[in-house]
Amino acid sequence: MGNEQTKGKKVIKAIIGNYREIEKSLVAQLNFEVPNHSLTIGGFREEIWKQLFEQIVPKKYVIEQSVFLLDSSGNVSDEVDLAILDEMYTPYIFRKDRIKFIPIEAVAAVVQCKSTNVDNKDNNTGEYYLRTWCKSIKNLNTSSDSITRMVRDITIGPAKTQSGTRPIKILCALSKPTVDLMNCFDIYIIANNNSQKIEIIVPHETDWDLGQWHYELNMRDNKSNSKFIQKKLNRKLSDYRVVHNGQLMSILTLNLQFNQLLMLINNPMLFPHMAYVKMFNNVEKENKDDGKNTD
After folding, report:
1. For residue 229, what pLDDT is reported?
2. What is the spatial distance between Cα 204 and Cα 49, in angstroms, rounded to a whole number?
3. Is residue 227 part of a domain?
């Protein structure tokens, strides 16, 4: 083996070792306890998770903390701990200091951060809080009412392979959720204090190929583009697992799996400016109609 090959092998081994150390440090920090200061430690953990994504997500994306998402129909999500979004082509609907309302068209992924209370339920409804949160994301719909200049022409409406996107949903926690919640999120990242390891759970890791993932993330509004045929891609996220000495390299695997999914979205929905104009103007119309009804 030549000197260059030997050097390259040493570098790769060093990178693997660095990932191991990062994983141990991450688990230790996330399981740090501050008695009687749940809000303080909750914010601390959220920041640690944010730093993890900042290490692996390309600079094309911005990671915003504690935001709300909305669509052009006036639907608003529950608070999102971390939103991974495109900030180059899509405007904020409202931004003032730490108050941010982000259009669903810009969002590539949403992350909810929990400690061990992943199975908590609402006492009034009996519904899991996390399931309610996921529904608030699912209720948001992208709009294809867009006009954009492309290289060859002006494009009206959605791109052929992107008729309606949805964000990748990720849960970061210190313990696994129950089976009842295992289909709410696309990726589960569990910081296991007992094993001092990060466990990555992807419910559809082995049964969806990348063509199915593309369809699920980009073709939510498939009726508007019936000519699109779901493409079969003979590759699954389970093929992106990195194993060293018989052990899964969790963070490195997450890095490659998650970024492959981001590449399937690649660009945000073409922003539907007119759809949001109509949303705000409808409020004015309703105000006028209400005024007439009170006369």
Report:
1. 58
2. 23
3. yes
Backbone angles phi, psi at 190, to 5 degrees: -115, 120
* 255, part of any domain: yes
Bridge-based pairing of strands 107-113 and 168-173 is parallel
* Residue 198 structural domain: 3-290
Whether residue 142 has pLDDT greater than 80: yes
Strands, E, within the chain: which ranges?
Answer: 61-70, 80-86, 94-96, 99-103, 107-113, 147-149, 154-156, 168-173, 187-192, 197-201, 243-244, 247-248
Long-range contacts (CB closer than 8 Å, 24 or more residues apart) made by 62-67: 62/86, 62/87, 64/100, 64/102, 66/98, 67/100, 67/101, 67/102
Residue 161 lies in a domain: yes
Q: How buried is residue 239: exposed, middle or buried, by Cβ count under 10 Å (0-12/13-18/19+)?
A: middle
**Structure token pair of residue 144:** 């294809």
Q: How many residues does the chain have?
A: 295
Domains: count for the chain = 1
Q: What do you get for the CA distance between the two ends of the chain, in Å?
A: 90
Q: What are the tokens at 153?
A: 């022409």
Examine residue 295 and state whether it is found in any structural domain, yes or no. Answer: no
State pLDDT tens for residues 233-273: 889 999 999 999 999 999 999 999 999 999 999 888 889 99
Which tokens in the block code for residue 132? 């309610």
pTM over 0.85: yes
